[in-house]
Amino acid sequence: MPPLISAPARQNAYRRLFSFPGTRAFTSGNLLARLPMGMFSVSAVVMIAGSRGSYALAGAVTATGLAATGLAGPWIARLIDRYGQARIAVPATLVSVLGSLALLLCVRYDAPDWTLFAAYAATATTPNIGGLSRARWAHLLRDDPGALHTANSFEQAADELCFMLGPVLASFLTGTFFPEAGTLTGAALLLAGMLLFTAQRATEPPVRAVRSTRAPLRSPGIPPLLACFVATGAVFGSMEVGTIAYADAHGHRAAAGAVLALQAAGSCGAGLVFGARKPAGVRLGHCLAGMAVLMTLPWAAAGVAGSLPALAGALLVAGMATAPTMVTAMTLVQRRTPADRLNEGMSLVVTGLLTGIACGSAAGGWAAQHLSPATALAVPAAAATLALLIHASSTRLSRTACIDS
């Protein structure tokens, strides 16, 4: 089958990207479905803590959902690779939506605490929505690496935007209307977006009759990449906890969300620029080195300047290292994963990130509690340095240089 790509090379990179047939339609549905990913945790915490009066319970429930997602994600993705996006993603999303509604009803009608854990764990069947979109781009742009780079950059920017706007929307809904409004709206957006996305069958990657027997986890170069993703996730988790602790120590806890949003804004902007004009010769090692350097800025701002505005500015700059790193690493995952198991490979990335976020949150929380909030902001810098060291070690040990090609 001939490639679906035929567009003037001199067009604006993003205008050219969305000139391909069907891309605007599936992107609209995907963004609609992806926005709730930044809403559900905040909505659940507000809803549970408001009803049960316990942030500890709310945190435990959301942590259970996070762990369940890390376990269920690769399994759901494997089914998608085998049977197709529409056949698996829609029923999996329905189960997730029912889990959200069950959680809402359990909270509303004061059901036992264990039901909250069971209901929220059911939401782990949510497909990797960003991964579904990236798989479509990888199929459509398989003969155009430059355009695929732009598409991956756009998807990373979209991730940052959704996780930046999602908590704001959830906070507005739960505070303005009723505690369950965030969960209810998120469930509706997820289902509507997924139905719109999967209805675009022309751009859906075909199911291959002959499947690879090699699991993505066993593909050359993938394990070290996943280790890098775990360390990168630790950057995100520890930065969030450290920033909240620092803002709280300075009497500005309510401003922590806005300060963290600046980090996402920096990443979003850098991702769009990186996608439109990739510097020649940039590799994963360069991106990781940049992240390791820039992640020292929040720590320095907190320790030297000692003010929240200084930390906010440092986070904006530090965030600019995130998207290029994620885009470059995700491109390598796409290259190293068997084409017929691409969704599974990208889902493993999410599992690695979630594992890192959990570890980073724990490490950042310990440092904030036992050392100081400013010292806790050294944890992201240490995690970024660890990611760089993992990559450097794996590159030296790999004769085929499959990590940084």
Overall strand count: 0
Basic shape:
globular
Number of domains: 2
Second-tier CATH architecture of the largest domain: Up-down Bundle
Q: What is the gyration radius calculated from CA atoms?
A: 21 Å
Written as H for each helix and E for each strand, in order along the chain, the element string is HHHHHHHHHHHHHHHHHH
Rounded average pLDDT: 85
Low confidence ranges: 1-11, 399-405
CATH topology of the largest domain: Growth Hormone, Chain: A
Q: Helix fraction?
A: over 70%
- Name given to the CATH homologous superfamily of the largest domain: MFS general substrate transporter like domains
Biggest sheet statistics: none
Number of helices: 18
Task: State the separation between the terminal residues, measured CA to CA.
Answer: 28 Å
What portion of residues belong to β-strands? under 5%
CATH hierarchy class name of the largest domain: Mainly Alpha
By secondary-structure content and strand pairing, the structural class works out as mainly alpha
Describe what you observe in this structure.
The chain has two domains: 11-207, MFS general substrate transporter like domains (Growth Hormone, Chain: A), CATH 1.20.1250.20; 214-405, Growth Hormone, Chain: A. The two termini are 28 Å apart. It has helices spanning 13-17, 23-34, 40-52, 55-83, 85-108, 113-122, 129-140, 145-176, 181-198, 222-249, 256-276, 284-294, 296-305, 308-319, 322-336, 342-370, 373-376, 378-397. With 405 residues, it is mainly alpha-helical. It has 18 helices and no strands. 75% of the residues lie in helices and 0% in strands.
